[in-house]
Amino acid sequence: MLKNKCVVLGVTGSIAAYKIASLASALKKLHCDVQVIMTQNAAQFITPVTFETLTGNKCLIDTFDRNFTFEVEHISVAKKADLVLIAPASANVIGKLAHGIADDMLTTTVMACKCPKLISPAMNTAMFENPIVQDNLSTLSRYGWEVIDPACGYLACGDTGAGKMPEPEVLLSYIIKEIAFEKDLSGKKILVTAGPTQEAIDPVRCITNHSTGKMGYAIAKAAMLRGAEVTLVSGPVNIAPPPFVKVVPVRSAENMFQAVTSVADQQDAIIKAAAVADYTPVHVSGEKVKKKDDDMSIPLKRTKDILKYLGEHKRDGQFLCGFSMETENMLENSQTKLFKKNVDMIVANNLKTAGAGFGTDTNVVTLITRDAVQELPMMSKDEVAHQILDRIFM
Question: Does the pTM of the predicted model rise above 0.85?
Fold first, then answer.
């Protein structure tokens, strides 16, 4: 994912420095070129050898180190950097960077970098809340730095509060968001629905389906990585919400209908990947009908057709994409749905096709528009997500 990308990790004097070893390792596994620059104080918490072993690159500390190939090292690193992350960032280094002080290898290198810059403060709560530190962080924000808010929790000093460096997985998500993909969807607003809905029969039972939400979540994540502003309306799933995406949790088809229609007219594209439970129990005089012991049937009625409603109210310039899972006559049934519901594209698959069923990490889909049918081979759902977005915004 990060092949041919170079990330500079700036490590400063904080007990949280040991966590950056995990981040460096994770970046290396994504085929990233990782350059680590440490302050002298950081070397008191974790050794340079650790980073050199994990990254395969010399860890830079001393501006006047003569043990390198002849080039102005801090300039050469700055030129090839695609992103800089200072983590953990001490109050001292934050103050230096905010005021243009370049007196060591880390600050001189960063001062020469023109790439995106992230900073993750990590310190005692009282230090973090100090107005001087807050002013310095605001100054860095004005200069284009993205400040990663610290987590709250138990700190090494024994205090509890803000100032804890986020876990390496969180820092990695910021890096991936910034440089993994071109931001070709920047400025676009995309609404994605995902997962199943549940219609309560009684306080214990419900009608639902086997949807896991994996495809919809993959689309939401892919759109976010490509710079779109994404809203994800999700039924009950067991998937961690994608970072940097607005998630609206719903349960019933009516909940989903209300959530979708309330913001539909503000979207550039709507991708309905949810598998809605099509039926809900009939109510009689405000009470659900109870089944008799000798009658296993439960009176049902259809829920609102969200896709049809969206097609009837689609505004000019808006792209509407629906999904169609079939067990037979996939192409014919999906083409009928395309025209009947007035959508721009149907993503169709056959439940009986290997690799295309519920709960898999792969999918085999056919992209159907009014003037073309494109069959895709088996791919990961992440790859399918990008193919769908490419077709929508081609």
Answer: yes
